[in-house]
Write a structure and sequence with these properties.
about 15% strand, globular
Amino acid sequence: MNFEYTEEHLAVRDAAREFAQTELLPGVIERDTEGKFPAEQVKKMGDLGFMGMMVDPKYNGGGMDAVSYVLAMEEISKIDASASVCMSVNNSLVCWGLEKYGSEAQKEKYLPRLATGEIIGAFCLSEPEAGSDATSQRTTADLHGDHYLLNGTKNWITNGSSASVYLVIAQTDASKGHKGISAFIVEKNSEGFVIGKKEDKLGIRGSDTHSLMFTDVKVPVENRIGEEGFGFNFAMENLNGGRIGIAAQALGIASGAYELALAYSKERKAFGKPISQHQAIQFKLADMATQIEAARLLVLKAAWLKDQGEDYAFASAMAKLYASEVAMNVTIEAVQVHGGYGYVKEYHVERLMRDAKITQIYEGTSEIQKIVISRSIIR
């Protein structure tokens, strides 16, 4: 076992940390309050290579490993989870899925611009009645010669109005159940494609979350990813990797809140000394640090397994389950350490607490992660 980062890993982490502090921190409270998508900051993330970190350099990607990716995700998430979820979806669900399973023509057409952040992508699986039960797809794609007609609604889509490319999961043969689900690339300007209003959310308020409606949207056959019936497997494989990104996001939210609480505890005085000298606060900090370190090891193990070409579905489910719980626990305690100041926006921890909750829900709820883990154990 080797617990040391390489020089490349440290350089990526430090670059992400500097970007987060200099570019994301200014205005993050205002963006959260206004529900404003960080378009300018996301563009700069693309310029720095954070939007296509694991993509092959021949498609303008960074060619980095998954460990580098989670290190960057943690640092970005410490400051702005709305920016980091955009980064996660583009890297884990869109770029990775296209590079792994797309045709060469599809890769050449879309990946170079996605990897540099010139355009961003969205992954469209969830529906009004197909959340955790992803097999219950109501969106349909009917073949008509050289194209499909796409009809249906997708819910909770990250990058919903800011994306240019959408990976859409749809039913092509309902009689086959989940084996009749296929995946398609849909472009934003397609006729019949309507973007609904932005959701007004508890947390990650700057993230661009929308419902999408498709009415007889023509999708060329060449925009199908893989064969008909491959869509469900495509979605599940994407989510296995996506969970590593969200686990890293949860880790970043937790570690960001912990760092703020630690610093505040050294400054705030009560009963004649800094509150960090009171055992009640010391024990909170000890628990927070221990939970974060355990979550970090789970996240890094999942990323390392992916880099080694090993099966990482079990590890990524564990990492997401635990890191998201840690994010929730640590942010609540960070607010408590801050006392009344923790309840106001100026001190950031209330926003991190609100952002933490979604990590227990999207890209597979905690309950779904337990199903994945238990099935692996029993098998």
